[in-house]
């Protein structure tokens, strides 16, 4: 059973995201995994990251009209599409296209706004205002004029074929039916449909549903009993039965709703709402529901996280502390006061005091079951059975932590160190070494009080204080957690494990993507959930221990944020508990927008989802598009670039790829999220390129995408030529010896008479030997030049003349080591040409290559002699800025950005403007590998792209 609709995430795409038009007429998914959309500006294919548009300007296929009306996937997996001029197209399961011209075929040249295929393989076409047609499998066309009294001219774009062969046709004036014998008539009045607009829908189980007015009916024999009535929603315009049996209904102007086991549900109130009419609904292979509307493309997907926000009844969105008491009530403290979420689901504010509620920073429950609340301004409240029984105030600063101990004492964190309450009396311990400043966390572990503050970590045990030595840089401790035989601390410099007297860090150098973490919460299946300002992190506890032990260099982990359903990626610290494990096993954290929770068992099922389907998307030969196919032969020495995709629409940007080139590679080579691979100068032979895809920590594809091809040898690499040269080399000395011997004998016989001629012969021989030596020297020179060319090609990008990725990796490793050795600054900037695919699609790849060359020229012009510019893939470049501070890197980017803005004829196209986004980072003394700089720069580039492009973000 799926989760409640309120926990679904709603994603939206418009023309700003690559769609050619905001009105989505129809949606379909073909068996190969691609999604297809019908728009007024062409047919659109979507792979999860990019929209590919087919229209009148494309060559394969060349559409006859851009206004695509409807889509249909037949039982063979072929995609059918129609347009506003009556033309019909088909893309078969093998990718071959065919288009039928209405003018040439002789059928009405008007919009085909619905298509459906019957059991005989006839494709039925509903012509807007002009009747019904059928395209037979043998190519014959059958046309049905609207009979008298049947308002077929007022048809509505929905048709369905029942299992009995009847065709149900939507109409503005009521439902129409075509009988198997060809009779066309109005739907029987006995069906009991409301007058006016009515239309059919065939569910995946073969059932026919009818929508009329505010009611939904289901055909059962000769009757159509009403199953649902949903008043107040206006006209329904689209319907879908999902894999769980729930019905989704789209309306003319009221958005979307779902009818299922939980009754009638609507999407979360804070989510994007499809504007205008919802024209079509589709459930994809992964269970997400797509809605095509007049205002764009929308997707509703079940997310990993649940959430509670002000829209659900919280007093305010800024949450700070969480506590589940012994009765199962969840207490939520935040900037707007205190709320309680009862086990029955009721959520309501709790008044701690009359008037304005205090800002709550901490929560705790003592041995007697009383709930303690620490608040802003040094106030503490104690509650018993839902009633405030004590209000204490006057504590220094704000109360960021409260800890109740088994002996009945309550410790309170203040701005002047920890204090203790015993039987209502305040006791300020005077123990040497105990922090006297701001206390940020408290924990009672093994009969000792652990105190976290802006001065580090201390342990009060047996009347004495011992300090926990934190590695350099760590200062503030936000939380302690006993896990196994160790205590884990969350600090402003990552996690630290304390075991005995040994402290082991797990921070940026070990793979954490952030410095500051607020809490670590172990679940019941071996995971550790870590909260931060950049979402929730998940790692396996055994991996955390392995990294802390030094047995594992880099921590494998996943990071979750709003894409995964979190209300906000910004977690909150300096309050406690800011994350908890509830009795049902779920983990919840306080964020800047309510609270977010994850069920680890549900996470386990998410991990088991099928891996993405890999597809080879495009091949380029020496930078030019190749109409690639299996078994083709390529010229030797060419540069082969292959792009690929993983067809999954859930977090498509996190898909990992790996390739193996059989005939060259014996093992798989992982590429991370890189979606292309390049080969230069492959030796002659037969090859198979295999591509596999995987979700983060998921399984690799069971069936890799494969491309079989061969590389032809160059003339000097052919076996016949090489054999001839070898034979000639073996015979040459013998032949030369024979010639010279015969000449010697003839010369000896005529010695007395031919002295002068003998001299001339010897001179000619000398000249020949000199000429042969000269030719040999020239041949050696050419071979040496060719070897230098090959070496240069291995390190140089052929298009821009910049160093390639291999050269860049070597240079970065060299400069990284030099910067560490000499203590010099080093900055890395990764740059990406904005919307480069649009340039290729709109102006051709020739213009795109010219733009890339010009980008390379600008980068070389912006570099100093010590800097290194490189092209590291596609439209992505990098700058290694030696002995450069972040401020100087910003100056370099500003100079580049200004140079880009001044050029208005990129690629020789007047008025064409190109912008570039960049992510920059500097070397950190704790960095142990260049890959850490690349990762931070990549993340910063991703933020620059997400924030609107044409800008630089630091990482």
TrEMBL record:
GO molecular function, a single term: diguanylate cyclase activity
Any GO BP: cell adhesion involved in single-species biofilm formation
Residue ranges occupied by any GGDEF domain in the UniProt entry: 824-955
PANTHER family cross-referenced by the UniProt entry: DIGUANYLATE CYCLASE DGCC-RELATED (PTHR45138:SF24), REGULATORY COMPONENTS OF SENSORY TRANSDUCTION SYSTEM (PTHR45138)
A single GO cellular-component term on record: plasma membrane
Alphabetical list of InterPro entries matching this protein: Diguanylate_Cyclase, GGDEF_dom, Ig-like_fold, Nucleotide_cyclase, Reg_prop, Rev_trsase/Diguanyl_cyclase, WD40/YVTN_repeat-like_dom_sf, Y_Y_Y
Keywords: Coiled coil, Membrane, Transmembrane, Transmembrane helix
Transmembrane segments: 721-739
UniProt superkingdom: Bacteria
Coiled-coil features, chain-numbered ranges: 755-782
Gene3D superfamilies membership: 3.30.70.270, Immunoglobulins, YVTN repeat-like/Quinoprotein amine dehydrogenase
Keyword Transferase: no
Protein name, entry field: diguanylate cyclase
Cofactor(s) needed for function: Mg(2+)
EC code(s) of this entry: 2.7.7.65
A Pfam family annotated for this UniProt entry: Reg_prop
Top enzyme category: transferase
